Amino acid sequence: MAVERPHAALELPEGSWWDWDVLAWGRDQFRLAADFDLSYHHGLELVFTAPLLVRCPAAFQDPVFRAPTPEELLRVTQQLGGRPPVLVVFEADAGGWEPASCLVAAERLDIVQETVLRYWREDAAPDQRFAPWVQLPGQ
After folding, report:
1. Once rounded to an integer, what is the mean pLDDT over residues 32-57?
2. I need a surface site. Which of 25, 35, 82, 88 has the fewest CB within 10 A?
3. What is the spatial distance between Cα 131 and Cα 55, in angstroms, rounded to a whole number?
4. How far apart are CA 82 and CA 86, in angstroms?
């Protein structure tokens, strides 16, 4: 599902999205994974295509998404030389004394809701997705 309102507070699908981590962080894509517990699987991914600016810890809990403040929007617009198509802002518990302020500017955002296993299982369905680090048989 592509997100249309890039500068409003991000709304997530129904679910228990408490535990978060970074699955991919590269020039072409920034991908966050979430679920109630990331030990065995995740059920939600925020896929930012062509990330322009990322300020985010590698792992965090309980994010609170909000619209960017006028100051944040101005600062990002000045830094990037224009207004980004997607701007997602949130505060999250990253283990410090205060919540971490996080921001992702990108060309596009897709929300993917699907179970992705984080370990190998022989009884997994043939079309089952696995996390990128899972060593699949025959690879």
Report:
1. 97
2. 82
3. 23
4. 12
Using the 8-state DSSP alphabet, how is residue 9 labeled? P
With CA atoms as reference, report the closest residue to 44 among 53, 33, 36, 54: 33
Residue with tokens 């043939």: 126
Q: Which residues of 81-115 are buried (b: 16+ CB within 10 A; e: fewer)?
A: eeebebbbbbbbbbeeeeebebbbbbeebeeeeee
pLDDT confidence tier of residue 106, bands split at 50, 70 and 90 = very high
CA 56 from centroid of its chain's CA atoms: 9
Q: Are 91 and 20 in contact (CB under 8 A)?
A: no
| CB 25, CB 91: distance < 8 Å | no
Contact 19, 32 (CB under 8 A): no
Question: The tokens 């020039």 sit on which residue?
Answer: 27
Side-chain half-sphere exposure of 15, counting CA atoms within 13 A: 20
Which H or E run contains 79? helix 70-80
CA distance 84 to 103: 12
pTM of this prediction? Answer: 0.90
